[in-house]
């Protein structure tokens, strides 16, 4: 997070933060190590990099069974190669580690973003969906324009796919043109190096350092690929970015993900987050335990995000300039004897395209997020203004706050009891 350190009342650095000192040392070491590793010629490095990108996507698109271990290994290799391009881009420490809150959400540093290329099942759900969407679009269009905002330093939802298309000659640069945008200078510097190393320049119509909530493309968009979210649909600016860019989609253009369903539930924390995973070697939707699932009290969908809901979003400006959009209402169920022992949690189900997607626990972005500021059938001793207190049977209206700290705000609209 960006903080100013003061010396004699004067800010000495916009980005120095004691909490990231150890990260800085680590990041420098990581970069040096990765450069030292490459006691190989430039041509060999380029060949290994390109192969790692093609291999990872070949596994993902394959319809034959691939083990979790094979996938993780292929993605680690892709990461190791991509990090070398990042090292070659020569980002200063400041550019590498700069992280801050913008008016529409958290802007992660390139240093922290570099790991998203290892998020196997998130990339799988997106890449398979994008591949199907392109397949479908290309039947009717000679050339497709794709916009990928907030793509991070490695643009991992698109660049591996393009490497695969180029290698297999599945789609040419005449058929696909991609715009990559990110507000972080370090992400853009890395992207330029990586695109050059992957020899994908012909597919890329634009790489630009710009805030996605301000960007105005000069062509109509056929596919808008967006992933700027964190668990519980909080912190990052997915909704603000999508809301702004949806207007530039062609009339038959698609958002990827096509649907995001954000859902609420009341869980016993120990069962949901601990017992459920005791026997699992990694967390994934296919490994959910029946016992834990049956123990959940599902509250239903609290928000749906797709092209049509985005086009119809009604923004409300509150006093102080904070903007919110109304989401769904849920009725808290009655007759749940242990309601007061449960915690409220939010999770997202992502349908990228045509049944492809990212389910709960497949990735950090769909991992349920407990919200301990919400109390149902229980009154905290000292109620703070950030606490929300309601009872079984109450109807709760959720709003989504479009600020530097985006997230849900519940409001009780009618109740059997007053909290
Ligand atoms: C988690 S990282 C990369 C996520 C990437 N979409 C992926 O699939 O791995 C988030 C990136 O989004 C960028 N970002 C966040 N909000 C943005 C905005 N409003 N405009 C442009 N870039 C943004 C950050 O700069 C950062 O590089």
Automatic annotation (TrEMBL):
InterPro entries: SAM-dependent_MTases_sf. It comes from the Bacteria. This is Uncharacterized protein. It comes from Pseudoalteromonas xiamenensis.
